[in-house]
Specification:
125 residues; four-stranded antiparallel β-sheet; alpha+beta; 15% strand; two-stranded antiparallel sheet; disordered N terminus; 2 domains
C-alpha cells in the first residue's frame, strides 16, 4: 500500500490530493485510465510481455520448490537465478518444464508450464 502512495510504482496520480491528473490515460495505449488494476492485469500492450514475464517468474519458483522437494536438484540457487531444466528425473519422480503433452484427443492447450509425475503410482499432477 505504501509503495503506491510513495510512487515506487509510477502511476499517474497527483500525490498531493490523491486525485487523478487531467491526463490520466495509460501511457502505453492511451485508452484506459492508468490505475494499479489496469497496469497489473488489463493493459493490452503489457499483456504479451510483462504479464508473461511475471507468470513465468512465479512458475519457475514453483518448479524449483517441487524439484527440491522431490530431490531432483541439489543446487540451492536463489529463485531469481534459477533456470528450469526441460526434464528432471530420478527413480521416483519426473518433472517437466514447458513441455507438450501427448493425448488421445486433440487439445488446444496441451503445453502446461509444469508437469509433475510420480513414477511409482504413474500419477501426473
Amino acid at each position: 500500500m505504501f509503495c503506491f502512495k510513495d510512487v515506487a510504482v509510477g502511476i499517474k496520480l497527483n500525490n498531493n490530493n490523491n486525485k487523478p491528473d487531467t491526463d490520466e490515460l495509460c501511457r502505453r495505449r492511451g485508452k484506459e485510465s492508468e490505475t494499479i488494476q489496469h497496469i497489473t492485469a488489463a493493459c493490452e500492450q503489457l499483456a504479451p510481455t510483462e504479464y508473461v514475464k511475471r507468470h513465468n517468474g512465479l512458475a519457475k519458483s514453483i518448479h524449483q520448490k517441487l524439484a527440491e522437494a522431490a530431490e531432483l536438484i541439489e543446487d540451492k540457487s536463489p529463485y531469481y537465478k534459477y533456470i528450469p531444466a526441460n526434464v528432471l528425473e530420478n527413480e521416483n519422480f519426473k518433472l517437466y518444464w514447458n513441455r507438450s503433452i501427448l493425448t488421445d484427443k486433440t487439445i488446444l492447450f496441451n503445453r502446461p508450464d509444469i508437469t509433475f509425475m510420480n513414477k511409482k503410482t504413474k500419477t501426473p499432477f
